[in-house]
Design brief:
The chain has 14 helices and 18 strands. The chain is of the alpha/beta class. The protein folds into 4 domains: 143 residues, 3-Layer(aba) Sandwich (Alpha-D-Glucose-1,6-Bisphosphate, Chain A, domain 3), CATH 3.40.120; 99 residues, Alpha-D-Glucose-1,6-Bisphosphate, Chain A, domain 3, CATH 3.40.120; 107 residues, Alpha-D-Glucose-1,6-Bisphosphate, Chain A, domain 3 (3-Layer(aba) Sandwich), CATH 3.40.120.10; 76 residues, TATA-Binding Protein. The strands form 5 sheets. Strands 1-5-4-2-3-6 form a 6-stranded mixed β-sheet, with helices on both faces. Helix 1 packs across helix 4, helix 5 crosses helix 6 and helix 13 runs antiparallel to helix 14. The radius of gyration is 22 Å and the shape is globular. The mean pLDDT is 95.
Length: 450
């Protein structure tokens, strides 16, 4: 069965509209429970969320769905997505749920599911859950005396803080380092400043006053201007920007210049390689990662394996081929020695450790390669419209590929979470890059408006 409800990162949509309604949340919970009730033991699910207003609607709906199926629920409150993955394993739960739309605005929300091993579910299991929703809702409800119970894990944040701190190399400290950290008014608004402070840093926190509406608004990894300005204003050594559920990290050096996920992965991978810690002979990234990263790794005798866009596909390749570093240019960084999914805080600590060990300013040692000129633009389209299938768009794409042949590449793909078509090109010549992207975008916009 093809997945329709699940995208590249769980279920996502505008809150209180299909599919992100309380009714659907309850159905997803019941269907997931039917998939993960195995054996006669008392089954448990952990539920975390970010700081969106709609979390107050979706969390109790999912709780009711799981309880109706006889599963006990452990409520974590606002915590990063990787904390849910970690606590699912730590508590020996049968299932983990994160209620978040990640970097999207507050109007959206989403549901991410983790198996008992702490990894996101496979396409096959998500398809099975969709089939359950379509055909099996109401089946398998628990008897009145076998309903589940719900409780809060009061020390959930403390457990995660200690877990993240344990990933920092023993013997290193952040004493004397001034760090700006922007939590995007999201799930890490308490834990991120605490981790950095407890490791010795002087912390300037931003985005730590969530009100249900301001998550990701002009802050965090999707809007880094405030963080970069604060780095310069406070004469900080480094700036860190997380997104709404803190599975994504971007960094600014002491001048306020941004380092994306490609730079951070290159830094971590080569540092781990030097220390004899890197597995797989390189790292795993998506087709969006810059060709400059691939060339940089090759200069160090390392490979770059590419996957489809989406951290789930990066993780699948890492697990199948034995890599322990992977991620996306957008800042999802997966370090399998420590976490099963992208973890912005753990990635930040590994970046800080590499910078400390190399010495010097972040601007000197953090930018490990010169990126090829790369241009990415998004084209919005109405649901039901298929602009990519029109003849003028196909001709524009063919012409662009012809211009880039031999010295660059063109990538066009639909977003898995939003009604967007992403057009990206890169090559040694920045003029050609801009021109081919503009030509394809113009054709797409005409087709989308028709």
């Amino acid at each position: 069965m093809t997945r329709k409800l699940f995208g590249t990162d769980g279920i996502r949509g505008r809150a209180n509209e299909e599919p992100m309604t309380a009714d659907m949340a309850m159905k997803v919970a019941a269907a997931a429970a039917r998939q993960f009730r195995r054996g006669e033991h008392r089954h448990t699910v952990v539920i975390g969320k970010d700081t969106r207003l709609s979390g107050y609607m979706i969390e109790p709906a999912m709780t009711a769905g799981f309880i109706s199926m006889g599963m006990d629920v452990v409520l974590l409150g606002p915590l990063p997505t990787p904390a849910v993955a970690m606590l699912t394993r730590s508590l020996r739960a049968d299932l983990g749920v994160m209620i978040s739309a990640s970097h999207n605005p507050f109007e959206d929300n989403g549901i991410k599911l983790f198996g008992p091993d702490g990894f996101k579910l496979s396409d096959e299991i998500e398809a099975a859950i969709e089939l359950e929703i379509a055909t099996g809702h109401g089946n398998g409800r628990a008897a009145s005396g076998a309903l589940g119970r719900a409780r809060r894990l009061v020390d959930a944040a403390g457990r995660y803080i200690e877990f993240v701190k344990s990933s920092f190399p023993r013997g290193l400290r952040l004493d004397g380092i001034r760090i700006v950290v922007d939590c995007a008014h999201g799930a890490a608004y308490k834990v991120a400043p605490s981790v950095l402070y407890e490791l010795g840093a002087e912390v300037i926190p931003l985005g730590v006053a969530p009100d249900g509406f301001n998550i990701n608004r002009d802050s965090g990894a999707v809007a880094t201007a405030a963080m970069r300005a604060a780095v310069v204003e406070h004469k900080a050594h480094i700036g860190l920007a997380l997104d709404g559920d803190a599975d994504r990290l971007l960094v600014a050096d002491e001048t306020g210049t941004l380092l994306d996920g490609d730079q951070l992965m290159g830094l971590i991978a080569t540092s781990w390689h030097k220390a004899g810690m890197l597995k797989g002979g390189g790292l795993v990234a998506t087709v969006m990662s810059n060709l400059g990263l691939e060339r940089y790794l090759a200069d160090h005798g390392l490979t770059l394996a590419r996957t489809a866009v989406g951290d789930r596909y990066v993780v699948e390749h890492m697990r199948e081929h034995g890599f322990n570093v992977g991620g996306e240019q957008s800042g999802h960084i997966i370090l399998h020695d420590h976490s099963t999914t992208g973890d912005g805080l753990i990635a930040a600590l590994q970046v800080l450790a590499a910078l400390i060990e190399r010495g010097g300013a972040v601007s000197d040692v953090g930018r490990v390669f010169t990126p090829l000129p790369q241009c990415l633009k998004n084209v919005h389209f109405r649901v039901g419209v298929e602009p990519l299938s029109t003849l003028p768009v196909e001709r524009a794409i063919a012409a662009a590929q012809s211009r880039l042949a031999g010295h660059g590449r063109l990538l066009i793909r639909k977003s898995g979470t939003e009604p967007l078509i992403r057009v990206m090109a890169e090559a040694d010549d920045p003029v050609i890059v801009t021109e081919v992207v503009d030509d394809v975008v113009a054709a797409l916009e005409r087709a989308a408006a028709a």
